[in-house]
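To assess whether the prediction recovers the assembly geometry, we first specified each molecular entity separately, as shown.
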Amino acid sequence: MSRPEHPIVRLRGVSKVYGATRALSDVDFACFGGEIHAVLGENGAGKSTLMKLVAGVIQPTSGDIEVDSVAMRLKGPADAMARGLVCMFQELSLVPDLSVRENLMLGAVGTGLGRLNTGVVRRAQDILAQIDGGAIGMKTRVADLSLAEQQQVEIAKALTRDPKLLILDEATSALNASVVEKVFQLIRAERDRGVGVLFISHRFHEIESLADRISIFRNGTHVDTFDNGACSYGQIISKMVGQRIDDLFPPKPAPDPHAQEVLRLDGFGWADTLKDVSIVLRKGQITGLGGLDGQGQGSVLQGLFGLLRGTEGRCLVGGTPVAINHPKHAKNPKLGIALVPEDRKTEGLILDQSIAQNLELAALGTDGINASDPAIYRPFLDALELKCDSLDQPVSQLSGGNQQKVALTKWLALGPRCMLLADPTRGIDVKTKTQIYALLRRLAESGVAILLVSTDYEELIHLCDETHVFYQGRIVRHLTGEDVTAEAIIAASLNIPASAQTAQSTHA
Amino acid sequence: MRNLLKANQREAIAILVLAVLLTLYLTTHPTGANTYVVTIWANQCLILALAAIAQFFAVIVRGIDLSVGAVMALTNCVASYLVIGSGLDMAFGIAAVLAVGVACGLFNGALVVFGRIQPIVATLATASLFTGLALLLRPTPGGRIDYDLADAFTLDVLGIPTALIIAAAVIGLFWVPLRRTGLGLGLYAVGSSEQAAFQSGMPVPVIRLASFAMGGLFAGLAGLYFSFVTTTGDAGIGPNYTLNSIAAVVLGGVALRGGVGTLTGAMAGAFILKTIGSLMFFSGLPPLAQPFIEGLILAGAIAIGGAGVLRVKNRLEVFGK
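The predicted structure of the complete assembly is given in tokenized form:
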């Protein structure tokens, strides 16, 4: 199909900065009508930021956004929608306490604050019927729908807004293959009517079957754009991977597969989030959990730390079956489990309190430890080179890296046997990263078992002794030794079978 | 039908409880059920119901309004000067009273939306402000409301208490139409998930401002109706109504976290609360024990609403994760 002369949306030199992190830097990007344009990249590559800019949810720090060749500022989603830029968001834009019907009418074309437009509901029902969503009750509360049903409703809602450019951000992640195919038929029909489609997905085969053009993003920059089919899997993955950094990481000792077992999970499951997860943590080993965001890795840590109710399967600590029902059990020296949570600002620390007060929180109420004794924290603070004026300074005044040092030290002082870490280096400067890596390795050598959730495959490759890759709540690949490569991790994260990936790579 | 019941579960329970309590009240009342008894009961209930509606509009958008009683006191004092004289005078007076209510609501809303102050703090401050104004107007209770007009709104029509007709009119002529507009829907959307409302293209600040303005209007109506019932102005009525309006919306199934509940439920909650109070009065319980029992019933009713926490599967969700 020939491409129209003018793009619907064009970004010129757009950057978006959040505090110290550059989510997008100097991006030029255009999408045209009558074309399905897929955007690929790892977590944190800037895809979602791009979508939010085009949908008017956020405004660029610098650079121009042109809609129909006119530079403008999109004041908000309503403004973008009025110009035909309709987004279906990854974090669903449905209101949980309202019914399906009400959600479809919310903010519908030509409604505003006045009389509701019930015609939209019939159109949406037609669309839902085409994508196996005909059985969704219009009066059901959205919170009572499954994630897949919510996505179907989102798709119907977006399509009833008469988009000129339809933005789909992980729009089909919870849908099964036959529904996805029906959604794709709808999307193709929209394209054939001249609608532009911007499509983010982590499923390679979906992009292969749907996209006309593909753009790759990496670390906030636009790497390349090409027609679908012009590059092989192997070439695409290497564009996503980019350069490596080696000396960040401490040297790895030779693996010891027979080291003493510290913790074993057998057939661990929880609600719909985790299924049949089995992991063994050994003394002195760093075990990585990889995969895309939100595939259940985080829930494994929460489950081990006693935060989840109704978990299935067995958990053995030092060979004895245990039931961990509360963080208080987990941190008891008998089990000795510590969790450094993902969001240090809300879960790991109390920002308004001083460093000293934060340090004491985990040790308080733990048998045999004097929480108020600063000497128990000192060695770790020194090893990590915490930079602060005094320990009475509020944690909120520290940089992200130094905050993470406090969050780590607070648990290290308990002398845990098993450390659970959720993405401990996210949003942290390189120097602090190396300090944390070195400390983790030293801890492992001193006999602590470490379980590390990471979205950074470099950590999984260079820091971890073995890696389990998650996809939709299951472990899809267990990688050890030489098998742990960026290509293998990304392929497993996208659930491409190992054989298919190697076949494609050899083509390239 | 099952879905409908499930969606309005809290409200259905509230209405059932009210029916039981009212039957109990009318059968235990010393003079038995007659129009006079029902009218007095309905008048008292309607004052609180209007205050509860004012509270509802703050709570539904995930706020709380500690100035409901203060706005009532202020509008009551304004009414005690203006709602008297010729028909035209009184019409102007009523319009002025309601305008004062809306202005108070808009002021609250502006502090919350533009000042980015938490509703509880903003309205705590404005409550003092409005009460202060009321005290300047009426340092001691006094003034008068036109008796004929007051009678017209507080007696009965063909045996049906006027207060109940007004209550039905508020639901039928105001609430039901409002629910069919984008604004009515937007109130819930903003309260339930501000982000989803924003991403759906709703003007979140406008909706929140409108909600506080409607809250002010109903607080003004509550003050006006209080004036009809007492036919005098009193600056000291506020605190009691503020607290009871919060209790009423919770009893009526409106979630304090916002986005859940209905105006009808808030009214039902107010009727329940007042009926419990009246029941106590004629129950023969020692007067000093009555606040205790009333509190016990209230605490029990509210606890039922919070039972959902027990079913949470991830402990972190209890903390609003």
